[in-house]
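Annex B. Sample input.
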Amino acid sequence: MSADKGRLAGKVAIVTGAASGFGAGIARQFAAEGARVVIADLNGDGAQALASELGAAATAVRADVARDADVAALAEAATAFGGQVDIVVNNAGVGQLPKPLESVDEAEFDRLLAVNVKSVYLTARHIVPAMKAAGGGAILNIASTGGVSPRPNLAWYNASKGWMIAATRAMAIELARWQIRVNAINPVAGDTPLLATFMGGEDTPAARERILTTIPLRRLSTPADIAAAATFLCSDEASMITGVALEVDGGRCL
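Annex B, continued. Sample output.
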């Protein structure tokens, strides 16, 4: 599809955690649909590699989305690259190794909340004012089925994603008067670099099979699955949809 005819033609989008996994899939699809994409990631080399792949439609920004100064600089870089930011995808996130909730140490807990929770606040803090001034925008939070239907030994990760779902609804109702839509996607376990973490640090056929038995469609989610849903929710086709947390989970939450 040509850039001037895509569903996101003329839009400028920031995608956090976009150097790999779901974020990279979303960035590629957004560019294919005509958006100019700011690829933000703590892995600056990975972000630059993807931006080089996508060409003039993309730029890379190394950013720690849990740091206010980094997110402020990201917003400035995005504006310099494409002008008004129309779309923000809060995709950056970290997981945790399965363990009893009381055995998660404070540093790991703080990191979970900094990346999975605080980052959503920071992007809103630095980008929502310009969206209000422009009279519209779309924010998409990549949450998790864990925030809807938790499983044991991932308590604080699940809680962080449950927060993201609640934040999505709270943001949606507050920002609707400015025509800013806020939605979420709840992926099931995906074929991404985070998968090994959720399996206890080791990605094996047996571990994958244990996960697949919980998914009625019997497959993991892919970056393309999440990108397809993200493209729809951030496009004008979804102009009447806000405050939704869409499960892209092969039936896992049924």
